[in-house]
Amino acid sequence: MKKPSPHAATARKARKVPLQEPPSPPLRSSGTIVFAGLCYLFTGFAFSYVDRGRMAFGVFCVLWLAWAVLGFGAGVLNRRGGEGAGRRLWRGMAWFGVLLALFPGFFLYPFARWICLVLMVVMGARAAQLRTRRDLYFTMTVVFTVCFLTTTHYAADWSLWFYLGPAWLFGALALAWLHAEGVDLSRWTQLSMTTGFVAVSCVIAACLFLFVPRPPVLGFGFLPGGDVPGLYEPPFGNQADGRGEQRAGGPGGSVGNGSAGNQGGGWGGAARSGQSRPRPGPPPSPWDRMLDGMRDAGRDPFAPQWQRGAINGALDAAQALRNWFRGSGPSASSPGGPGGTGEPGDPQAAPPSGGEAGVGNPLALLAMALAAWLLWRYRYRWGPRVALAVAWGLSRWLPARSMQVSARALTWCLRARRHLPLPGQSVREHWSSAPGLAPLAHQWTQRALETYCATRFGGVPATQARALRLREDVLGAAEVMNGAMPELSR
């Protein structure tokens, strides 16, 4: 009998040993968990918002808030704990959440939404042990899945983005914060850069969505070219035609008082969604019909009062801006706006005869653009003055914060002289290596450096006297650098 080779025996032993999964890297910052918790919280708000017509939306918001704070708050506290930290809490929350999901949750929601409810409840409980990147990715996957399923609900009109918008913003901040864990940047720099990137991305996406042809689905039927309020037809029919009013007389609704989730004109009952009220003159454009259709969300009796006020205020501002661009003046506003009632025969609803608004509008835009350019052009000249004024106000109650603001003002002065801090460069190295300073400015800079470093790194307590002394030194150096005293700039 042939003896097996040692290589074959080694291969068989390797096949029998199960491959161990590589450990996931731990989370280094609590900010990632905080942003993930905020994303989870607003997703829960959006999940309950589509059922606001038949359930108490405020009560469910309080429950989601308590569950998110309990789960993700424990995750922040247990991040640096041992392997078993938070295990008892997450198991207790999971059992309690599953019981609530079975009764009464199973009788309140259809099957697909009930699955989403169970996933959200379990992931909120699992957040008590959120310590690795794998756990974070799994949590964000569940949250975004629930977001996408919520947008396909027949009641998912455009006002849902009051909650999905912050949810996606905080989700992007959580992922960006996770990506920047190993980068040597301050928290405020990470937050500002990430928020700016997300804002620019949202503006680009909104522009593409407004002007690129698309099917009227996912709750965006209010835009020009579509009148379908969602991917599925509402139970009361499409409010853009007569079927919605005919069906509204059935169970669960009456004429002029449609479902809370419908986007159609059911709140006031006077106008249908996407249709303007009769007005003298030419027919309204698609953008005017869009703004009139969006006003139905401002009359939703089941939406929070602050949301209705924000919707009406934003639509009034949008209508006024559109009237300014058309040169018709601010008085030709939408129905119910400040310029009139919008009813036929209203003398205030007629556009003005003159073209003063059309002439003044470009001048106002030009003046605002010029002011914005001047502020940006001289930001390093006016910024230190504002910062030093703030430092003087903080010196009595928050001397340490006052000294930080004064140090930031001196850094801005050096930036104005094209002296930028290098990566990894300390404050002492940056201030001491400034070229071309006048002797007096160099002397004041050195005094400010010694005062700041003694408090920041030397353990000297921050007092009001030291904060004011640092502010005076920075003010003197800034005045010399900016040329306010030419006789001292030699």
Sheet of most strands: none
Unreliably modeled segments: 217-277, 329-360
Q: Rough shape?
A: globular
Q: How would you state the average pLDDT, rounded?
A: 73
Give me the number of helical elements: 17
Helix and strand composition category: mainly alpha
If you had to describe this structure to a student in words, what would you say it looks like?
The protein is mostly helical and 490 residues long. Helix content is 59%, strand content 0%. α2 (30-49) runs antiparallel to α3 (57-77), α3 (57-77) packs parallel to α5 (111-126) and α14 packs parallel to α17. The chain is globular, with a radius of gyration of 31 Å.
Short description:
This protein is mainly alpha-helical. It is built from 17 helices and no strands.
SSE inventory with pairings:
Blueprint: H1 6-16, H2 30-49, H3 57-77, H4 87-108, H5 111-126, H6 133-151, H7 161-179, H8 187-211, H9 243-247, H10 286-294, H11 305-326, H12 356-377, H13 379-394, H14 399-416, H15 427-432, H16 439-456, H17 464-481
Helix pairs in contact: 2-3, 2-6, 2-7, 3-5, 4-5, 5-6, 6-7, 7-8, 13-14, 13-17, 14-16, 14-17, 16-17
